[in-house]
Write a structure and sequence with these properties.
The complex is a heterodimer of chains A (363) and B (159). Chain A has 363 residues and is mostly helical. Chain A contains 15 helices and two strands. Chain A has two domains: 195 residues, Cytochrome Bc1 Complex, Chain D, domain 2 (Orthogonal Bundle), CATH 1.10.760.10; 149 residues, Orthogonal Bundle (Cytochrome Bc1 Complex, Chain D, domain 2), CATH 1.10.760. The longest helix of chain A has 27 residues. The radius of gyration of chain B is 17 Å and the shape is globular. The chains are: A mainly alpha (363), B alpha+beta (159). At the A-B interface, strand 1 of A face helix 1 of B. Chain B: Pfam families: Oxidored_molyb (PF00174).
Chain lengths: 363, 159
């Protein structure tokens, strides 16, 4: 080799070294881009983002990769998205979810929508933050079935992830905690605020007559003494986000089999109470209730109208004025359903920012 | 020895949790307290009259909230000045419903009505779904802060 070529060779090596050095330096030192969470002012600012896990573009993207990656399950076949499918507003269409062992889990998969505002996660409110929640399904024997630390070890040497974790969290050692943090960042971005009902609230769309009558029933408490029928749904499912963070028993059973909130608080007054779920995208998230017992919205409305069971802790909102149910007419039921259908947000279920990232296929 | 201790501890915790129709007062207090229905029954009671949502006048009996706050060493009376006026109470129900009161609302040095934690209505214990404890703000036009099934009072600073 002539000295000239040797010189070029040296230069090339130096350049390569400089480049790798620069890339890894960049990975650690480039400031991350803050993620702009956008939502209507009416959704309010009652949420906390942990100071040690700010939402960034890069972190959200990493979380999205992880959300769709079956590597995080024992069998390598189940990802979060298996049970939380975007086209169903992040539910799975089953009464009870099926995880790594092919058996149904104990409850119905919840919709992942507007979680930024939820402070007590799960049907029984047992998780206090998205960071804490996100690693629970990974470690759950019936969901993704991983031992503590196993998920981090599994992806530790996947180049895509080593690079991304370095960039987002500035470290080479992956942990389950960091996996949880990244997924939590992605979950905070799952904001749904473009249903027809949202546009109606913003003065940009009108409701049909049936929908308007349905809305009146939804908002109004019944008053049989004055001949007023109502659903009083808004007491629990009201507000622009279509839920209040409350725990109630809505009269599904006289004899409780799933103790719900009681298992978390130990209080008998909590037996059979569950967190009020959001009604956003309700047309897409069936089957309904914590055990997925109802397949259609008609069954749900029939329940509230005619089959409310006086079990322990049945909410007084459903009994105080009228025992046994709301006694709605067939026309009322149709109107109420028409109104529930205005909660569907088709931009949310098609938002390209929430889909499975193409990079996963070339991992 | 160790497992035995652990077991006893667990049992103790369980026992206190199961026996749980209690009221907790915590936060910016000198001493957090947990009061049982019996503890509360033993305190001096006061009667108030107020209109519930249906407009019906009801006679409640219960303990002035200020007396409960004093038990926890909340700043009241002469101490309720300066930065202590930036404190508020979050009253929380079993179902998670929360409402806010400013401390002076409870304090007879400021307020002309007495807000009570009621445990009886028209001579009987509060019914299921309302009791064991309910806040009653006698003169308030809408009873939305008459929290049913009260579980805790948390004192905080506006920050």
């Amino acid at each position: 080799m002539s000295s000239k070529y040797r010189l070029y060779g040296c230069l090339a090596i130096a350049l390569a070294l400089a480049l790798t050095g620069w890339t890894s330096w960049r990975a650690v030192n480039t400031p991350l881009t803050p993620y702009a969470l956008r939502f209507p002012a009416s959704f309010g600012g009652r949420f906390t983002i942990p100071a040690d896990n700010p939402t960034t573009e890069e972190g959200v993207y990493l979380g999205r990769l992880l959300f769709y990656d079956p590597l995080l399950s024992h069998t390598g076949t189940i990802s979060c998205a298996t049970c939380h499918r975007q086209e169903r507003a992040f539910t799975d269409g089953r009464p009870k979810s099926i995880g790594v062992n092919g058996q149904p889990t104990s409850r119905n998969a919840m919709s992942l929508t507007n979680l930024l505002w939820v402070r007590q996660l799960f049907w029984d409110g047992r998780a206090g933050s998205l960071e804490e929640q996100a690693i629970m399904p990974i470690h759950h024997a019936g969901e993704m079935g991983m031992k503590p630390g196993e998920a981090a070890r599994r992806i530790q040497h996947v180049p895509l992830y080593t690079q991304q974790f370095k960039q987002v969290f500035g470290t080479d050692s992956l942990t389950d905690t960091l996996i949880g943090k990244a997924i939590a960042q992605f979950e905070r971005t799952l904001i749904s605020a473009s249903s027809r009902y949202d546009r109606y609230l913003a003065g940009k769309a009108a409701l049909t007559e049936a929908e308007s009558r349905g809305m009146a029933l939804f908002m109004q408490a019944p008053d049989p003494a004055r001949g007023i029928r109502g659903g009083n749904c808004a007491h629990c499912h009201g507000g622009p986000k279509l839920y209040q963070e409350l725990f109630h028993n809505n009269g599904l059973d006289r004899h409780i089999t799933d103790t719900g909130r009681e298992a978390v608080t130990g209080m008998s007054l909590d037996r059979g109470r569950f967190r009020v779920p959001t009604l956003r995208n309700i047309a897409l998230t069936g089957p309904y209730m914590h055990d997925g017992r109802f397949t259609t919205l008609d069954q749900v409305i029939d329940h509230y109208s005619d089959h409310v069971q006086a079990g322990p802790n049945l909410s007084r909102e459903l009994t105080a004025r009228q025992a046994g149910g709301l006694r709605l007419t067939a026309a009322d039921k149709a109107d109420l359903k028409a109104f529930l259908l205005t909660f569907t947000d088709s931009t949310f279920i098609r938002n390209p920012a929430f889909t499975r990232p193409a990079t996963l296929s070339v991992r | 020895m160790k497992p035995f201790l652990l077991c006893t501890l667990c049992l103790l915790c369980l026992a206190t949790r199961l026996n749980a129709q209690t009221l907790t007062i915590s936060g910016e207090v000198a001493r957090p307290v947990t009061l049982s229905a019996e503890d509360i029954k033993a305190l001096p009671h006061q009667e108030v009259t107020g209109k519930d949502r249906d407009g019906k006048e009801l006679h409640f009996s219960g303990v002035p909230v200020i007396e409960l706050l004093k038990k926890a060493g909340v700043t009241t009376g002469g101490e309720l000045r300066g930065e202590n006026l930036a404190k508020y109470a979050v009253v929380k129900a079993i179902d998670g419903y929360e409402v806010v009161f400013a401390l002076p609302e409870f304090d007879p040095a400021f307020a002309s009505q007495v807000i009570i934690l009621a445990n009886r209505v028209d001579g009987a214990p509060l019914p299921a779904g309302t009791g064991p404890f309910r806040i009653v703000v006698p003169n308030e036009k809408r009873p939305a802060r008459w929290v049913r099934e009260v579980r805790s009072i948390d004192i905080r600073f506006a920050k």
